[in-house]
Amino acid sequence: MKPVEIYTTPSCGYCHAAKRLLTQKGVPFAETDVSRDPSLRAAMVQRAGGRRTVPQIFIGGTPVGGCDDLFALDSAGRLDALLAD
Q: Range of 46's domain?
């Protein structure tokens, strides 16, 4: 399985929903809280091609977007293939 990274903030409902979906699918992920460190948020924005909202999700180092994007991939049946090595 490719590594999954997710940039979040504690009060973000979309972050919680994205993490819940990944957990339900048995996908381990590395979480980075960007709420208190401007340098972490800046790194997220740079990696995400200028997107500033959380969550920002990366699978195998590739940005896939936010919560809605993650759910759309899953609904289209493409998330499992993206996660596979």
A: 4-83
In DSSP terms, 58 is beta-bridged to 5, 63
Q: What is the 3-state secondary structure (H, E, C) of the chain?
A: CCCEEEEECCCCHHHHHHHHHHHHCCCCCEEEECCCCHHHHHHHHHHCCCCCCCCEEEECCEEEECHHHHHHHHHCCCHHHHHCC
Q: Give the CATH number of the domain where residue 63 resides.
A: 3.40.30.10
- Each residue's pLDDT expressed in tens, for the chain with a length of 85 residues: 999 999 999 999 999 999 999 999 999 999 999 999 999 999 999 999 999 999 999 999 999 999 999 999 999 999 999 999 7
0.85 cut: is pTM over it?
yes
Can you read off the two tokens belonging to residue 57? 């999700």
